[in-house]
Amino acid sequence: MLPSALLQVCPLGTPLDVPLVGVPTTPAVPIPAGTQKQPAWKTGLHRGRAMVTVAVTETVRSMQYGNQSRQDLWDVYGTVTCKCEVEGVLPNVTVTLSLPPNGSPLQDILVHPCVTSLDSSILTSSSVDNLDGSAFSGPYKFPFSPPLEPFRLCSYTSQVPVPPILGAYQLKEEDNQLRLTASLKLHETVKNNFEYCEAHLPLFNRNQMGGADVKVSFGQVDVSKEKNLLVWALGQKFPKSREVSLEAKINFSGQSPGPCDPLCTGLTAYIKLHFKVPDMTLSGCSVDQHSVQVYSSSKPRIATSRELLCKEYYIWNSTGAAPVSGAQMTT
Question: Can you point out the beta strands (E) in 50-176?
Fold first, then answer.
């Protein structure tokens, strides 16, 4: 009775220190050589064409004030996602992240529980510490036995010296109208090849726009009078100079009130950027498809990619009040 009761209570393990006196032994079932027991967390097996996909996505945030009394802020965090369609109960895969020779070390690394082993130096680098020459700078190897569904292999942060796009924004009240000037500059280290790039200039707590005279050095502007919004579409490339500018004069003679925001009163206003750069990361982090190792019964096709996205990327009007975060943005 005791063996069957233990099997009910502990179905996934082998109990130790079990009293043997008076307990009849049961014949062991031989396990065929070369077979592996499927773990309880893996609900099925892959059947079909083998494929391993690894994607590195970095996201940059920024708060730029254009004012010497307030420090501009930015941070970068990355994720590595995988989808492994590989045959076998416990196939082994190793993904290696690499940095360029002058790249900043990855920090604050967190890994998925399926990672089987890890160099301790990978986990000791933290963004709250001062970087020095002894910081581990890769390559970063992650051996793991993958689940069936897509999953996040790891996440990290990286300290980069400058944000990818520097901006300036000035908004002033003149003759019962608003005068706007804005400029954007793409940093020389950033790949000038966007999937999309837009600058949104909302104007809150006023009547709806009556007239808008807008001039840009590059791109196109869509004026939404109902939303009190200028959408500056820059397309897929900055000009050769990597600098663009906008000037506008706007009056708010509409009869209906426009959108409200309790934060953006008076001259408190911002530009919010939206962009995506394929085949690039600010840290330089990448995965070479030839460095992905798969130990399985079949040879899989391997695909790798990387991209840079922005989130909460604000350029505040330098002539008005603006919210100020702490000394460092947090993820």
Answer: 51-64, 73-85, 92-97, 107-111, 140-144, 151-158, 165-174
